[in-house]
Amino acid sequence: MTDEPTKDTSPDGDSPQSSEEQTPHPAKQRAAPETTSSDTGSKPKPKSKDRWVKIGFLVLIVVVAAVVYSLQQKPMTIEGWSEDLPATLTQATQQGRPVLVLFVRTPPSKIAEQTKTAILRPQNQKSMAERKLLKVLISTEPDSDVAGRYNIENLPTLLLLSPTGIELNRHDGPGHIGEVPFRQEFLSVLSK
Questions:
Q1: CA–CA distances in Å: residue 96 to residues 55, 88, 166
Q2: Of 115, 134, 143, 190, which has fewest CB within 10 angstroms of its CB?
Q3: Would you tell me the crossing angle of helices 110-119 and 122-130 to the nearest 10 degrees?
Q4: pLDDT tens readout for residues 155-168
């Protein structure tokens, strides 16, 4: 027998191959690529497109969360109420008018919203107008300077001050003041 390699035909029957060609050198062997379920006929989705969709969705979530957060952080406002206590106290002294001060937290609590609603009822608006009250809304925290000056420990707190700034009445604590108690009890220390 000769050392000459035997010739064989390739599996497809095209050209003869030698036995050396049939068994490639181990260093030249490559593993066949593994197939996955995504390789079995359908085109795989481009990864960069998926990545951008995920990033876009994440950005949308962050933007919506930021908008919701910022809306919740808005301070309470009441039309026609001052937010400048020192200026209002000066005006009260000059005009001899009492001052109603509502201290609330930002964002306002549900109790603060209920208190605002009670105060703004038509009968209470009429009662405040008859007493010529100056009205101030202060958004603060219990540990602020202005809260310390008026011994505010709970928010919301309603203060009724004389024209000279002396405390005449106070409502604070866990519950809001109702519509009728505001008019008949809280403001009753003032004569019409």
A1: 62, 11, 12
A2: 143
A3: 60
A4: 999 999 999 999 99
